[in-house]
# Entry
Amino acid sequence: MLKDIPQNVVEYLVDKIPPYTGLLMIKVDSRGIVKNWKGNPEEYLGGTLAVNGSIEEHVPALSGVCPFEQGSVKLTKIQLKDKYCDIHAVKENGHYWIIFIDQTREVDSLKDLLQSMNEEQLKSRGNLNTGADDLPFRHLDKLNFATFLRHDDGAFSLQPNIPKWIAKHPLFEEASGSIDPVEAFPFLEVFILEVETFWNENRESYIVSETWSETFADKDHYLRAYATNFNHHNYLFLKSFIREGVEEQNLLQAFRDSTLAFDKLAKTEKKLKELLAYKNKFNSIISHDLRAPIAAVLGVVNVLTTDEEEIGKLNEDYQELIYGIKDEMNRLLDYNNKLYHWANLELGNFKLELENIALDEIVKIASETAREKCHEKNISLLVEAEKNIKIRVDKTLFLQALNNLLSNAIKFTPMGQTITITAKKDNREVSVSVTDTGVGMDDKMVKNLFKESDTTTTRGTSGEKGTGLGLGIIKKIVDAHKFRITVKSKPGEGTVFTIHIPETNLV
Amino acid sequence: MLGAFAVGKTSLVQRYVNSIFSEKYQTTIGVKIDQKVVRVGDTEVNLMLWDIHGEDNYQKVKPSYIMGAAGYFVVVDVTREETLEVGLHLQKMADQMSKGAPFIVVMNKTDLPRSEWYINESAINELKENSYEVILTSAKEGTGVEEAFSRLTHLMINK
# Structure
């Protein structure tokens, strides 16, 4: 039966339900050597289990049963330490799961029943007329059963030896000892229809109702009804099982609580994704629409600053203001462009258009783009790119990643230092590295570098402001290509960013 | 009371019968039967309320529970879309078993913020267009509860 239960449910049963109803499962090989277990062996076996020990040492009842030859084995009501257990062995892929199911409570309740039956037998030794035939179920009160005999006229009479719980039912108290089960328990109105059919068919065995609950005598009673036909008499039994009912309820409750919690999480996740998509779309639209006005202002400023005659007419303060506007507008344009690219990458608004590119060529284009900024900070840019390496990439995106890496390096490299861009083939992969001799980073900073939640930006060595988006864009592009990016850095010594291109993208 | 698990069937009964509400979700095992005597005009009606366990993969509602029903509620949690599907499935079964007994679809937990509702006005209107009687309730705040039980009692008496 356990094979039909999903693995997570089995694990839940084993790990979560209280030990007195819990399971112990021990995995053994065909010779009974312990391999693994779930649950708490001490509860059942009174000692710790050892991997590669013999199960027979802990469970003498299994002596002689191992090696298992049949597909499954079942031993019932075996006494182990302080517990009675049903022991099942189920075969699975050449191993066996030995499952211990606690039956102590059932045995305890049966003990009372057996004891009273035995006592009665002892008392009536020699007396053949014990009345046992008239009251065949008179001991079932020990198991909390109330027994009703159904007469031919359809009336019920409650049989002697009444369990305590039914004696507290208000209808029983009012009627001073007599009770119509269907009147007392409305649930039986439905079940009795099934029972009548069962009795009319004179079938053997018994039928059992679903569980229902009623509150009386300040207690919630979980009840179940059984019906049988015995010696041409029809019997109806009612059993109250408070403790088992509560346990069943707790177990089901735990499953449902986790289902509700999971549903809530799933809904929250869905909502968060929707919000993120909305945010990215918003960023994408805004940054797209801002491009034109920024470019227009920048165009005017460029005209002003390139016309030396016109700008020469202004005094130095005004000239400085105009150049300041130009710098800020350029920064705003750069920021806006990055925001636009980042939002679109987040939205997945792109499709990789792979083409075969000579690696040294693309490195050259990137270095040419960076050269002007390097010149402004008096930084030497060295290019060491092996020739004859062809890679398959989305040229625009890959170039953007290299440009961002170089901008980043320029930003954090002090004036007069060096940046090197290297492209080479090592074994089966190609790597493109940007090495700077800049300020470097500590381990914590490196660790959080590509985390989206990390929004900190650091000013460059000449006070350059950052957007916090550059590295995020690089990571998105690298991930989209299924490449890797690694970082090595030491504070005060510099940083090396390396993009690793796998063999699959080499041509 | 029919519906998926944790839609508030027991809470609705407790609110109606005992005027109490508990925030804690308490799963129902099997069936819990309560009763309430109400007066409709000159008639005294003894309502036997069968609070049937919620349906899910672990507990399936037994059709025989509904056999003797004079009327029933299909309870839906407005914040859990899937509970409408379960409710409508149970309604079909109940309709067969009860031979067309009157019923009301109860949209419960309406005290929760609208932003958490997955069952919106259009879904409710669609039900109404298909001749389903729908009442919005909150067992927590008590809104609509008396109205729902009174309306079903009325429908049962006049059937």
